[in-house]
Amino acid sequence: MLNFTIGKEEKYDDDHHVANIVGQFEEGDVTVACWEPGQISPIHAHPHLTEIYFCVKGGGKMTTDEKVVEMSPGDFVIHPRGEVHEYENGSERSVLFRVRYGEARDFSAVRKGWRGNPDFKKEDES
Questions:
Q1: ∠ at Cα 12 (85, 29), nearest 5°?
Q2: pTM value?
Q3: DSSP-assigned letters across all residues of 84-118
Q4: Which architecture does CATH list for 30-86+99-109?
Q5: What was the pLDDT predicted at 122?
Q6: In the structure, what pLDDT confidence band is assigned to residue 86 with cuts at 50, 70 and 90?
């Protein structure tokens, strides 16, 4: 059994969101992800795992190739393996509870772009 208190696991950074892994299990992990206002994740996909986000407080926008979903406390989003997605935080601090799992426990991500990082170079660039 994994047991923790989200409020005790919150950690923030002005430069980037903090993904605090609070538990691991054979097929994956669980994370308390903390976001400052306006922070944006890379546009990415996980070829070998499913990713689930649950909004605990704050909120923002989760974007895929097919739609944009506004997230607020109580909402959750499931990204099946290989789905390209991006999270853009709203105007206040946010906490998302994330679960990642897959048969191979391969957490690799393919990054397609990163609007929140002007220094980002695509992985196929040198």
A1: 55
A2: 0.84
A3: -EEEEE-SS-EEEEEEEE-TT-----EEEE-TT-T
A4: Sandwich (2.60)
A5: 62
A6: very high
